[in-house]
Fold this protein.
Amino acid sequence: MKITLTVNGMRRELEIAAGETLLEVLRRAGYKSVKKGCGSGDCGACAVLLDGRAVNSCLCLAAKADGREVVTVEGLAKEQKLHALQEAFLDEGAVQCGYCTPGMLIAAADLLSHTPEPSEEEIRQAISGNLCRCTGYVKEIEAIKVAARRMRAGDDG
Amino acid sequence: MGLGCVEEVLKPTSLDEVLSLLQERGPSAGLLGGGVSLVRYAPSHITSLIDLSTLPLNYVKEEEGRVKIGAATTLREMLDHPLIAGYLNGVVVKMLRQVASPLLRNLATIGGALVSADPWSDVITLFLALGAHVAIYDGTTDTLPLAKIYPIRSRLGGAILTELVLPVPLQNAAAAFCKFNRTGFDIAVLNCACQVQLHEGRCVGATVVVGGTPRLAASLPGAEEVLTGQPLTSETIEQATVAARDAAEVREDRRASAEYRKQLVYVGVRRCLQEIKGQLGGGDR
């Protein structure tokens, strides 16, 4: 079957199998920032924004995304300029092996687009579905705070 | 990964069309809400999916004091809705924040959560305690107590669960929910929910529900009877809590031993009743 997605602002017509997940379809279409981790909704490495909300693309059937808007990490940067979250993750050293980073950025992007001034508790809650085995989360939380501050100040990276 | 056996995803435009498709396809048809349980458990007999997102089942509204939630409403949409936030002092929001992760709550629908009816479901435990109903469509709509539908789980016999109905909040009542889990978004090792209504300082109605035992969530009439007619004091809470612990049928699984679960029933029910006492003012002399 054929579906139409808007991925990172670009309309894409994609041929899919009826039971395929959004994760499988996006990776096949070249969006390799979308990582396959657990495949069961536990780790969050596959997170993408679907109509502005972060979801596990491994548990979302591609057919359900037909006609909807998807944003992957490839779509966060605009005109060769990294998103404030990406800049802050770099500045704060919030990346080690990097496998969880795209999902973490997407979950944080969902948070900051709906809650520009999040509390630490809200940040922790927002990334609670994203597992990281390297960093211990401290630097990610700090990076999200920094990005939120910069975005509120209009200096969004 | 994915549902390799699925050959078609159908997008009906009416509930009657859904019924016809269910009848035509028989057991090989599955209803697609958020798809979380379907993809995760990938039942191999399902070859046709009927997508419910094309139907007008995504809403939260109030009618005659009842809060009605369409089956295709996501848990996140419920969390964000002022009618849910305002219901019984925010007890539903407090529960929803403890269901899985934000990423999953953005996908999972309330209809899916209700028909999956997992024994560890936080949603089922609280809504049983609140006396919620569900609307079932099989050509006509019947509104039935969740307690009646839940034990048969998803075997609705070709009918469709279209709506969750939260009752008009009882006067001078409060409810509380408590969950024990091993990690932030693991399923419950045990959960419980209570609702108490006071009249002239005495309990005129009480529900005590325990889930994740790991059997299906169930009310504990023995504990409820202890409270009925009594003031809500530290003493009666202790009596009800002991009755709940004694009555709860628990067993072990890989998450916890039966003994541990018994103790969790005691702690969880006590916490819920103490929270309710705090909200209602209680009756300690």
